[in-house]
């Protein structure tokens, strides 16, 4: 492309501080350095994790360009890049895969050492590629997709099938893969089992889809918002309940409902209380509970160790346990083969300039996934 090696001027949604609205700004995006890739974003999803930055629940430096769930096309590459070329359709990866660190080399690992989950805000060389009004603008989770163009390390880019629709496949960059993988890869849900999913947002619905795909015979959805029940039943839940409908602890309600046979529970909210509830709700001896929702920063959890001593398994899960560069292209292929339907998760599609409206839909509980198109 004619822009290779040059600074690109484009539009981006910049966050200037906590609890501020996005500001659509003209920014400059520098060319990629060695082992970096510059990508033109085609579609990007709005995820609760991005909202955590606005609210201050996730630490970030400002100004920053957030967004981490997207599909784009490679505009240009830096020196030494071998896995993608200009024109390739790609998914940016908030969880990189360098293929060299101990997590990447272990078959069970996926939390690459190059991940930026602590708000470093820069690429591998310690600098940013964005400027706005003469000021450097921070990156977010190695991705920064709320912009027409972004720059990523090569380890944070997965080449995907060019036939994939960007406004659907972008969900594989975070929400869908995180939930679906929690069931099929982290928990390894078994056929005929009983599963319980706490939290019926986009990721919770994806957990339900994973439990169904794994052959679970009973899938119970739990949320205090009953408006979410219809969608949960549509994607595979067998029944839904609200904790507010009983004075008993939810673990007792579930034990009574199932004859004490809950094998798998998933906490997909990110609240400390529901993490302990989910653990208590799986079978005391052979149950497995998976923490899927991102916990709040700087909070400590208190629980009775007897919950674990009796035999339960408590597992964490980041990005559904997938190795990002290896598995994201495979998930996109499965999408094209209609192994799962992402249309059920996308409630709104808006032009990029309406990003603030998209976040209002998220915060008011009206949307599951809003996708922004460019």
Report how far the terminal alpha carbons are from each other.
19 Å
Question: Helix fraction?
Answer: 10-25%
* Stretches with pLDDT under 50, minimum 5 residues: none
Overall pLDDT, averaged? 95
Counted by DSSP, the helix tally is 11
Instruction: Decide which structural class fits the backbone.
Output: alpha/beta
Beta-strand content bin: 15-25%
Secondary-structure element pattern, one letter each: EEEHEEHEEEEHHEHEHEHEHEHEHEHE
Largest sheet: 7 strands, mixed
Shape: globular
Over the alpha carbons, how many angstroms does the gyration radius reach? 20 Å
Number of strands: 17
Pfam families: ADH_N, ADH_zinc_N
Organism: Mesocricetus auratus (Golden hamster)
Protein name: All-trans-retinol dehydrogenase [NAD(+)] ADH7 isoform X1
Family: Belongs to the zinc-containing alcohol dehydrogenase family.
Please give a handful of descriptors for the protein shown:
metal-binding, six-stranded parallel β-sheet, globular, alpha/beta, seven-stranded mixed β-sheet, 374 residues, single chain, 17 strands, 24% strand
């Amino acid at each position: 492309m004619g822009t290779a090696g040059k600074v690109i001027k484009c539009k981006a949604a910049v966050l200037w501080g906590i609890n501020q609205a996005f500001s659509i700004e003209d920014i400059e995006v520098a060319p990629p350095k060695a082992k970096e890739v510059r990508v033109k974003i085609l579609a990007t999803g709005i995820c609760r994790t991005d909202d955590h930055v606005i609210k201050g629940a996730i630490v970030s430096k400002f100004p920053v360009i957030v967004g981490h769930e997207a599909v784009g096309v490679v505009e240009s590459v830096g020196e030494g890049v071998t896995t993608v070329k200009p024109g390739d359709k790609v998914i940016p990866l908030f969880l990189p895969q360098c293929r060299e660190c101990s997590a990447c080399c272990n078959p069970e690992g996926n939390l690459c050492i190059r991940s930026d989950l602590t708000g470093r805000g820069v690429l591998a060389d310690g600098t940013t590629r964005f400027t706005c009004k003469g000021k450097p603008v921070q990156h977010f989770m190695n991705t920064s997709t709320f912009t027409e163009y972004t720059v990523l390390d090569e380890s944070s880019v997965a080449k995907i099938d060019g036939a994939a629709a960007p406004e659907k496949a972008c969900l594989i960059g975070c929400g869908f893969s995180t939930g679906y993988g929690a069931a099929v890869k982290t928990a390894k849900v078994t056929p005929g089992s009983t599963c319980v999913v706490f939290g019926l947002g986009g990721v919770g619905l994806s957990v339900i889809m994973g439990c169904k795909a794994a052959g679970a015979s009973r899938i119970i959805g739990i949320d205090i918002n009953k408006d979410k029940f219809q969608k949960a039943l549509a994607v595979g839940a067998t029944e839904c309940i609200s904790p507010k409908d009983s004075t008993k602890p939810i673990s007792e309600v579930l034990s009574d409902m199932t004859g004490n046979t809950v094998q798998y529970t998933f906490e997909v909210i990110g609240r400390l209380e529901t993490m302990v509830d989910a653990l208590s709700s799986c079978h005391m001896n052979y149950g497995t509970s998976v923490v899927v929702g991102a916990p709040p920063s700087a909070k400590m959890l208190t629980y009775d160790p007897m919950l674990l001593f009796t035999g339960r398994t408590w597992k964490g899960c980041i990005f559904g346990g997938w190795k990002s560069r290896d598995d994201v292209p495979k998930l996109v292929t499965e999408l094209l083969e209609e192994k799962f339907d992402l249309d059920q998760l996308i409630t709104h599609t808006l032009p990029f300039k309406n990003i603030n409206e998209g976040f209002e839909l998220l915060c008011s509980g009206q949307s599951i996934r809003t996708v922004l198109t460019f």
